[in-house]
């Protein structure tokens, strides 16, 4: 999910590291790193080392050739050659682990300590790794037109919005299918089972580099959001190769592979409702939308929702010569979605915007919804290829049932969630993947087609599953369900609101 990838961690890019004076012999772009079948580390971005590891396109048919996966390492100050490497898997799908580690270097050292090496990577199909596909082949006008046709806002914002979203979704798959067919023959070979095998290839290459038997290599892994699907998939496929694993802010793997993400809305309103009580407790000096009671704050917020639902507000742009725009109900709902990822940090900003809107100034809401338009295809392609043969959101009846369910579970966000999570875009994808890359249909969580059934298999060391008690995006129920699938795993709860790894 693009939103999860962007909102869970702020990927601000390379910053100064890519633009400052370059040191001789230092790589500042993965374009300058030669892919290798052996793990070869090159000094990069001043404080890191980087590698592009060649991996098979298809592990069941290695004659198809290879692609390359970009890895970046932050060496622990007190690490030795025997020190474990902890691999961080960012959110998404489609999030860049390279950007994640570059942006959060100091935080990574604080989190894991100086005795470990911290490694992250761009999964196949993402950013610096191979198999990237531009569904619109550089045609920015076509992409813009598609976003206008498809992203009509909340599913119930008009009498035709729901149907427009469903029927226009096939356009996206058609463009992606065409781009893969004509420009990137194996562009759909980016599924999560293939990523799990890439991780196995990496830890074996790392062991060999250290003079250890590859067969003894074990994975140290910290996955967040979509990264927890990667972790759960690896643990199901290669349960005996897990040394330490933390799954934080858990996305339910079964619902992910079924392409429903159905229960993601379970705690959204619970998080939103905390706004009123926390704003009231903070007082008028710290919460600009303060009211004499939490009920007063809630009532005024609901009044703003009703007003924008019935009366979009035009902004001409004439005085400032800006582009004219129309502030809509969907812009307000987009504000709510953005806020609940990290409520305690974002509630004050939401209060300020609601305060302005209540006084007739809606300009702060302008472009909130359109700012979430699809600009990169990696996340959608991974999401849609992963649900190949399992997609439970393919017909208009299934989409209607899904949209009705999300509305019934969340009055604040349920009606905009289907267009945010964009599972409906998978309707016309035709990936034609080999069995080695597919999670087959099953009544159980993961049935790998080799066949490897990870369920019921304990890992050598218990998996740690972490969650906030109120998680509006990756709800606590998903963490409990995931923990139940791995014998011996431990569930760690934090009394907090928001996505747990903030």
From TrEMBL:
Residues 452-499 form the Peptidase S33 tripeptidyl aminopeptidase-like C-terminal domain. Residues 1-18 form the signal peptide. It comes from the Eukaryota. SUPFAM superfamilies: alpha/beta-Hydrolases. Residues 84-294 form the AB hydrolase-1 domain. The keyword Transport does not apply. Keywords: Hydrolase, Signal. Belongs to the peptidase S33 family. This is AB hydrolase-1 domain-containing protein. Gene3D superfamilies: alpha/beta hydrolase. One of its GO terms (molecular function) is hydrolase activity.
